[in-house]
Amino acid sequence: MPTMESLKAAQPAPGSPAAPATPAAAADGALRAPAAPAAIYGASPAPLPTTNGATPITDSFFAALVRRVPAGWWKTLLPISDAALIVVAFALAYYLRYHLQWFRTVDPAFQVSILTYAPFAVMLVVVLLITFRLSGVYPYRPGRAIVEEGYQIATATTMGVVVLIATSLAFNPLSYSRLIYLYTAVLVTLLLSLNRVLIAAARANLRKFGIGVKRTLLIGVGDVGRMVMRTLAARPDLGYQLIGFLDDNPTKGSTNVGPFRALGPVENHVQVLAAQQVDNVIICLPWQSHRTVQRLLQECDKAGAHAQVVPDFFQMTRDQMQVEELNGIPLISKRAVVITGWNYVVKRTTDLLLAGVGTLLLSPVMALIALAIKLDSHGPVIYSQERVGRNGKLFRCHKFRSMVQGADQMVQGLAAANEATGPLFKLRDDPRRTRVGRLIRRWSLDELPQLWNVLAGDMSLVGPRPNLPHEVAQYQEWHRKRLLVSPGITGLWQVSGRSDLTFDEMVLLDVYYVENWNLAFDLSIMLRSLPAVFRARGAY
To answer: Is the N or the C terminus of the chain less surrounded, counting Cβ atoms within 10 Å?
Structure first.
């Protein structure tokens, strides 16, 4: 069980999101555990991880610069930068219309100076900032999809430009070009959407230094708590850094889940809030614990931490809930989470089209890889292995052989060197790999034959990785949810770190994918897979 000293040791150093903590050798009574077997609470949880897993990261020049900006300025900086970009968009629109004269030439009699449009540019800035506020563009919400953000910007910009056109018509309809306003609307949407992309990239960089993150404590890790946990694991862009969790179940309260640290029973919350710099507390306790929840809300308020409660029935995600209305009374029902019906038809059709085209285009590459394998080492070119697919169905998964013959029989002798967690077996420098095998695994080319599995219906392009039967036999109950969908060649786990992630992290991400699937999510993962392959992070 963690002591006060071990919790204080986990406080972040300046300029880093979290500093490593040293496990306490014995409990000092500061944090008391309920009556429980000594074997469960006798050891302290693992230290909080730092950003790089070892030592705190020193601020970059950009991070140090951002820290010097007063916190209150950020709410005004976005509208100011948007206003500047609107002016730039208007100037570019003038240049396109009157100098480049795209699509339609300008009669010399109607050539006007850009200063003539200056009042309209100022008016556009004012009108758009107001419509942005009314339409939900402001305030900025981290984690919002760029497509959604762009759509809202485009809608608000269209409204503002319509107002501007009406105003120009009321003045001198013959002197002003309406085409310039169309150009302006398009350019404003493009520039402001690009601005949001750059903001998201900057926030992702700053999160490495602990800037722009809410240090969050999770209380309760039942079904609801695990749902929150996997959302935080899959969506770092939301800006939450889970420093640990509390649970009264002795096993859950002392067992880390991936990078998330177990901090003991719920009654430890006072000491955790005092010892950690907690910004946010998410409470996920069952409905029977409403008195405990009320007490937690009061104590979080005293400690200066923002507390949020997830109702017990919200173990359903947003996409799992269907909200209807009965004369103003909200009715919440549950929708199926598995990919069935038309969703399955859409996903399967997409798989067949893309896998078919991919097989044709990549056939020359696959032929060269097959030749290289044949020349490099003895054995078959294709390695087939029994894996567990959708709903536990077994199938033969195909890969280019990247290891020597008899590699499966060598696992027992290498078990002591296993670097993976859970039931998986992984070695960063696996001695069983061939020369060609090292290369094709580095670039994930060994998985190209799985396109045949996709065409056969055993796999999908996107989904959880298929595990071996003996690995699935070691699953905990919550792990099995990843078997509700077809396994995939790529997936959320692969684009988030691959083999560098723990087994629990992999399952959290896979279950998040199962619960939140849509076609746009699949396309996003496929697009993210390309840079992930080139970076080769966790590829071994």
So the answer is: C
Q: Cα dihedral sign for 29, 32, 37, 40?
A: negative
Please tell me the predicted confidence (pLDDT) of residue 335: 62
Q: What φ, ψ does residue 397 adopt, rounded to 5°?
A: -95, 130
pLDDT in tens, 333-347: 666 656 888 889 999
Q: Quick one: which of 41, 32, 421, 47 has its CA closest to 254?
A: 41
The phi, psi pair for 184, rounded to 5°, reads: -60, -45
C-alpha to C-alpha distance for 214 and 242, rounded to whole angstroms: 8
CA dihedral sign of residues 364, 370, 371, 373: positive
| Residue 100: per-residue pLDDT | 73
DSSP 3-state assignment of 512?
A: helix
Task: Pinpoint the residues of the chain covered by CATH 3.40.50.720.
Answer: 4-57+210-315
Q: What angle is formed at CA 236 by the lines to CA 230 and CA 239, rounded to 5 degrees?
A: 115
The per-residue pLDDT for 500 is: 72
* pLDDT, position 354: 96
- Chain position carrying tokens 């306003």: 181
pLDDT value at residue 409: 87
In the structure, how many helices (H) and strands (E) does the chain have?
Answer: 17, 10
pLDDT for position 61: 85
Q: How far is residue 268 CA from its own chain's centroid?
A: 30
DSSP 8-state secondary structure symbol assigned to residue 247: -
Residue 19 backbone class (left: φ over 0; alpha: ψ -120 to 50; beta: rest): beta
Distance in angstroms (rounded) separating the CA atoms of residues 537 and 524: 18
Specify the fold of 4-57+210-315.
Answer: Rossmann fold (3.40.50)
3-state secondary structure of 350: helix
Token pair for residue 356? 């078919």
Pick from 155, 160, 133, 8: nearest CA to 78: 133
Q: Are 404 and 438 in contact (CB under 8 A)?
A: no
Rounded CA-CA distance 77/88 in Å is 17
Q: How many other C-beta atoms lie within 10 A of the C-beta of residue 473?
A: 10
Residues 6+ apart with CB under 8 A from 236: 204, 207
What does the pLDDT read at residue 332? 66
Query: Rounded CA gap, 92 and 87, in Å?
Result: 9
**pTM of the shown model:** 0.69
| Residue showing tokens 């033969």 | 396
DSSP 405: T
Is 21:6 a contact under the CB 8 Å cutoff?
A: yes
Q: How far is CA 156 from the centre of its chain?
A: 27
Segments of the chain scoring below 70 in pLDDT: 1-56, 104, 106-111, 171-176, 312-338, 498-499, 536-540
Residues 266-289 have pLDDT tens digits of 999 999 998 988 999 999 998 788
Q: Which residues contact 43 (CB under 8 A, 6 or more apart)?
A: 23, 254
